[in-house]
Amino acid sequence: MLKQPSATASAIGKNILRRSQGKESAPIIAAGPYYSLGRACLLLGRLDEARRLADRAIESSPRHPGFAAHAHLLLGDIAIHPDRFDAETGEAHYRTALALAGPRGMRPLVAHCHHGLGRISRRTGKCEQAQEHLTTATTMYREMGMTYWLEKAEAEMSELTR
């Protein structure tokens, strides 16, 4: 178990950033770690760092839309974080991720986008839209056996009836 996860994520992120600026970088290799570190930073509440890493993931994957889709999902999640809720930015990133993921058959990512769009709609009082997106997300999660995410989406749906 890591004693200082925040310091560890920061050190790994700095190493990746340093390597990506040198001759040894390879964009396709960098996109995945940027995304993963960005996700870790989001979980640690380091939103500015998470955004920088997500932006780097997009920059590192111009010919790999699947990586960009994941990065846009992350940017959507950052935008709707309770500490800086920005519905418009979040929606734009989720819709971009959907446009990239759908044609590529990236069903888990598509479900996550609908979940995010449902959360935005619920928080902005658009209950009908929230119901539609969350129903799509729960159906997809159920079909794919993604029980952890299914429970989260169902909890969001139950908030609609309160």
Description:
By secondary structure, the chain is an all-alpha fold. It folds into two domains: 1-89; 106-162, no CATH class. The protein is built from eight helices and no strands. It has helices at residues 5-20, 27-43, 47-59, 65-79, 87-101, 107-123, 127-144, 147-160. The mean pLDDT is 88.
Total domain modules: 2
Instruction: Give the beta-strand count.
Output: 0
Number of helices: 8
Low-confidence stretches: none
Shape: globular
Distance between the termini: 39 Å
Biggest beta sheet summary: none
Q: What helical percentage do the residues reach?
A: over 70%
Mean pLDDT: 88
Instruction: Tell me the Rg in angstroms.
Output: 16 Å
Element-by-element helix/strand order: HHHHHHHH
- Pairing-aware structural class of the strands and helices? mainly alpha
Amount of beta strand: under 5%
